[in-house]
Amino acid sequence: MVFEKWMAVGFSVVLIFVCGSIFAEEKAAVTAGVEVKRSEPDWKTKGCVVETKAQMVYDLNGNGWLEPDEAKKYLNDRYHKIFNYADTGVDSDLLRAYDTNANGAIDPREAQAIREDCQN
Ligand SMILES: [Ca+2]
Ligand SMILES: [Ca+2]
After folding, report:
1. Is the same domain home to 108 and 56?
2. Of these four, 10, 14, 74, 111, which has the most CB atoms within 10 Å of its CB?
């Protein structure tokens, strides 16, 4: 009788240990998922083609292409306009990449991604 009781206790301990480790694995997986970073946008590595008159102003060497530095300056300035609810319309592929809900406008939450990309 005492032996059976100890067996039950032992079984419970093993069960708790197994459940605990499964939970820990799930938690680790969830944490890993959160830490997955967005992939580097093309403009940061290659730059992008000039599509609008506003972007033309940032094309300092006038080659019809925004080099990464020029694109960054444009996006950084554009971010501040968007943040103040001015000029939020998506007018280029460069901004389209940030319009995650595809409604044709960059809202402040979407603009956050622009800010992060400009800072890193
Ligand atoms: Ca250029
Ligand atoms: Ca949007």
Report:
1. yes
2. 74
Whether the pTM exceeds 0.70: the reply is: no
> What is the mean predicted confidence (pLDDT) over 52-67?
98
* pLDDT level of residue 99 (50, 70, 90 thresholds): very high
Single-letter code of the amino acid located at 33: G
Residues 6 and 56 in one domain: no
Query: Which residues keep their CB under 5 angstroms from ion ligand 1?
Result: 59, 61, 63, 65, 67
Which ligand has the shortest distance to the CA of 100? 2
Domain membership of residue 15 as a residue range: 1-36
Angle between helices 108-119 and 68-83 (to 10 degrees): 150
User: Separation of 74 CA from ligand 1 center, angstroms?
Assistant: 11
Q: Please choose, from the candidates 40, 38, 111, 104, the residue with its C-alpha nearest in 3D space to the C-alpha of residue 76.
A: 111
pLDDT at 30: 56
